[in-house]
UniProtKB/TrEMBL annotation:
The keyword Transmembrane helix is assigned to this record: yes
Transmembrane domains' residue ranges: 20-46
Domain of life: Bacteria
Topology versus the membrane: Multi-pass membrane protein
Protein name as annotated: ABC transmembrane type-1 domain-containing protein
Keywords: Membrane, Transmembrane, Transmembrane helix
Gene Ontology CC terms: plasma membrane
Localization terms from the record: Cell membrane
Annotated source species: Desulfosarcina ovata subsp. ovata
Amino acid sequence: MLRDAKANRQLPFIPIVLPLIRPGLLTAAIFAFIASFDELITALFISGARSTTLSRQMCRTTASKINNQPFLNMHHSRKRENAKAQMPNEG
């Protein structure tokens, strides 16, 4: 039908095909996440304290990057300053 209207091959993909395959893509993404997360848990339990697997290193790197965000550090330091300002003076 769209071919009769001289539409190119990619035109029907977004409005027709993408909505049809969206549930499958979402399911595949969820399964891929679960499989990779399971790999991390297995590496954490099986590997020793001294060994570093790729999964463990990726987890450490991600956690350290999250903890070193300037905005979060600024936010927490302001919370500490506000808490100190609200404390009564001793002495």
